[in-house]
Amino acid sequence: MQNLAIIRGERLLFQGLDLSVSAGEAVALTGANGSGKTSLLRALAGLIRPHAGDVRFEGPQGKLEPEDARSQGVHLLGHQDGFKATRTAWEELLFQVQWTGGTEASARQASARLDLDRLAGLEVRKLSAGQRRRLALARLVASPRSLWLLDEPMAPLDTARRAVFGDLMAQHLAGGGMIIAAVHDPLPIAARACDLSSAMGPSL
Amino acid sequence: MNGFWVMLRREMAMAWGRGGGPLLALTFFVATATLLPLAVGASPARLAAVAPGSAWLALALASLLSLERLFERDYEDGTLDLLALGPVPLEAVAFAKGLAQWLTNGAPLALAAPVVAVALGAELRLVPLIFLSALIGGLGLAFTGGIGAALSLGSKRGGVLIAVLVLPLFAPPVIFGAGAIEAFAGGLDWHPALGLLAAYGLAAAALGPFAMAAACRNALS
């Protein structure tokens, strides 16, 4: 991304932000509450349009159309996980995995990996916040998409699960994946830091 | 294309699953029609004259019921973010939603429409045409209704807003649908009205998804 600026409402969140991420790299976005971490992630995912600057994607064969890159190569995990409260964990996981390009087999593997098999038949509303987050992470693991955009991914996880999540991220990076994560606590893997507060613009 | 089927299957499963969407609409449909004799008087001659038109009016109102859930729940729980990053564009997602809305709400209502009309005193020979017009009309109701549902995203009291946005768009199907039945009952040529009803439905199915997708993108940004 180059010279990126985002305005929400009447407020300039940041401007002149340059950041590039290449295969195998992780970036930890930091910044105070309201500094624009979530907005930046949503702009990268194409959900909001930046006020200035642009976001470009490159694949092994050169430049990619942003629509193609986003529809096949980007996972966004925000504060809301998109699970329907009255459907079972397995139904919801399977839909999200198939929707983002994975298969039933890969969903089963991810479910085992994140220790979700016991919960598969439960309705989503009966899961705890940490269990829901593991369900959401299973989607990332099960469908192969190279760029993970994570918004506070670890907040509801317990210590043991944070370690598992660290392994999953390390594995994703080792496979040539990329991670951009908005965090308050440090990530359990090596990551380049990017502080949004330093890209703060003058108020409009 | 695979993504489209995944989407359609989910929409169908959710509509038939919990929440009783079709049942609620059906009950509302029957209840509205039951009020008619109380409002205009129970004289069979008078009821029979207005039966097809009243069935169509109740049908249009019942079609409004489940619209609020069409996009609103996906918007509130973050599913719409995921849908926007899917393998098919949001236009295809909107088409799948409209189609599922037609199959799970329009089709059951179309089955109930002749029953309701006959109960109100419509002649039995009208039954096939009432079913056909309700089924074809349901396509237009589902897709124009979807536009209203997408436009009202993020507003408080979306349900009321949808009704206000969508009811004017329901005027043509009500005119053509009830008109075809009236024409047939009166021994006139009913094909043009049914043709216009089908044209309206197809146009809504072709253009509606673009409007719905644009409204969703706007709500997300």
Explained architecture:
The complex is a heterodimer of chains A (204) and B (221). Chain A is an alpha/beta fold and 204 residues long. Chain A has a single domain, classed as Rossmann fold (3-Layer(aba) Sandwich), CATH 3.40.50. Helix content of chain A is 33%, strand content 23%. Chain A is built from six helices and ten strands. A five-stranded parallel β-sheet of chain A has the order 7-8-9-3-10, sandwiched between helices. In chain A, strands 2-1-4 form a three-stranded antiparallel β-sheet, with helices on one face. In chain A, a hairpin with a 2-residue loop joins strand 5 and strand 6. The mean pLDDT of chain A is 83. Helices cover 81% and strands 0% of the residues of chain B. Chain B has one domain. The interface between A and B is medium-sized, with 30 and 26 residues.
Task: Describe the structure concisely for a colleague.
The complex is a heterodimer of chains A (204) and B (221). By secondary structure, chain A is α/β, with parallel strands linked by helices.
Q: State the low-pLDDT regions of chain B, or none.
A: none
Main beta-sheet annotation of chain B = none
- Average pLDDT metric of chain B: 88
- What oligomeric arrangement do these chains adopt? heterodimer
Helix content of chain A: 25-40%
Structural class of chain B: mainly alpha
The H-level CATH homologous superfamily of chain A, spelled out, is P-loop containing nucleotide triphosphate hydrolases
What amount of the residues of chain B lies in strands? under 5%
**Percent of residues of chain B in helical segments?**
over 70%
- Main β-sheet, spatial strand arrangement of chain A: 7-8-9-3-10
The number of strands of chain B is: 0
Radius of gyration of chain A from the CA trace? 17 Å
Strand content of chain A: 15-25%
